[in-house]
Amino acid sequence: MRVLRNGSKELIKEINRFKVLNIVRHQHPISRSEITKQCDLGVSTLSYIMEDLKNQGLIYEVGESSSTGGRRAKLIEFNKDFGSTISVKIEETQILVALTNMDAEILSNRSVPFQKSTSPEVVVDMIETTLKQLLTENNKEITDLLGIGILSSGLVNRHEGSVIRSSMLGWKNVSITDMLKIKFPNAQIFVDNNINGYTLAELEKGEGQENNNFLVVSIGAGLGLSVVIDRKIYYGSTGGAGEFGHTSIVVDGYDCHCGQQGCLEMYASEFYFHNKGEELMHAYPETILNTFQFSEVAEAASEGDPLAKELMHGMAKYLGHGVRNLINTFNPDKIVIAGEGSKYHHQFLDKVKRIANENFFEKVGIKTDLVITRLEDDAWLTGGALLAINHIFQEPIYEQMKAGV
Ligand SMILES: [Zn+2]
Q: How many Å lie between the centroid of ligand 1 and the Cα of residue 356?
């Protein structure tokens, strides 16, 4: 359990300091008067905080804003190069690693492949080697590294920094942050699951710029969900909220790798192409499909392959019903479709929209937008960096968060 710190002068000072720093971080460059407007601190308190942040190299003053008459104001910039973070996404057969500045801008990145079911120890060694290479190539010292954000598939314990279980990686109870902490004792290390990490990028650089309550559905090899309520990701009791792929859509349906039957992931992802494709293959001797990967089925469908088209229609139907269930459950501002499958949205989005739009709220004239993400593939790594950065700059109101910058 997280313990709230006792109220004290020291705590108030720290909260105010982080409040000012975060205003600059999110809105830089920004004028001093705009900061004053937003944080309502006395002139001397604000000056003291600004001076302190400047002395620490977290902010600096730049040029002057365009004239609105009268004296021109200097602008305050956030020092993005105050430190660096490393973002890691662990996939089934590769790690993606990026070096970013403190604004989550990717400076350099690379992927390193590995065999399926590689042990956590070997993957951690790969992360260490790649991380050091990226730092060296970008003329950074190990002391510049302030945070590491790790995104993994499966159920993650964010507080302990461990992967509780990932069937895709074949990992169980892996204390990944402890393993990395031994190698990088000065960096703050955080772990979350892939789709929640991606959603941090949506919050800061994508749909979150206009919406406070939205859902991110990732489709492709599997089916993921992240739930944003009042700009916070909803984690549920043990961090597992969003296992939308394992909600039931067909009673007594296909066996799922989770141990249940009829899970939505078996119908609204690449799994459906494998399941249904093998059943129907014999009826379509003319098909050009050899395997049932999402990209292959989507491309064959666009070329008019009848089996691929049928599979795509079926997948879209189930996804549409799944999305309708989400709308009826959460009444979100918007649903964002992301993931590898979203690249092929021309093949399924219209049908998904048609079905999803026949929902409870539509009957009273409330429309829920369904959009394709506007972020690029590297948003996963941006999100991993934000996982670390957001923690580092969070107001330290809990005992466990005293470290900070
Ligand atoms: Zn399942």
A: 22
In this structure, whether the domain defined by 9-78 belongs to CATH 1.10.10.10 is answered with yes
List the CATH code of the domain at 209-374: 3.30.420.40
Supply the pTM of this predicted model: 0.91
Give the separation between CA 127 and CA 342, rounded to whole angstroms.
28
Backbone torsions φ then ψ of 165, nearest 5 degrees: -160, 130
157: left (phi over 0), alpha (psi -120 to 50) or beta: beta
Expressed in angstroms and rounded, the spacing between residue 245 Cα and the centre of ligand 1 is: 6
Question: pLDDT band at 9, cuts 50/70/90?
Answer: confident
Work out the pLDDT band at 202, boundaries 50, 70, 90.
very high
Return the number of other C-beta atoms located less than 10 Å from residue 103's C-beta: 19
Cα separations in angstroms, 78 against 19, 89, 108, 282, 384:
13, 27, 21, 62, 20
Question: How far apart are the CA of 345 and the centre of ligand 1, in A?
Answer: 24
Break the chain into its structural domains and give their ranges: 9-78, 84-199+380-392, 209-374
- Angstrom distance (rounded) from CA 13 to CA 231: 25
pLDDT of residue 239: 86
Q: Identify the CA nearest to 107 among candidates 83, 89, 143, 73.
A: 83
**258 alpha carbon – ligand 1 mean position (Å):** 4
Residues paired with 336 in a beta bridge: 216, 371
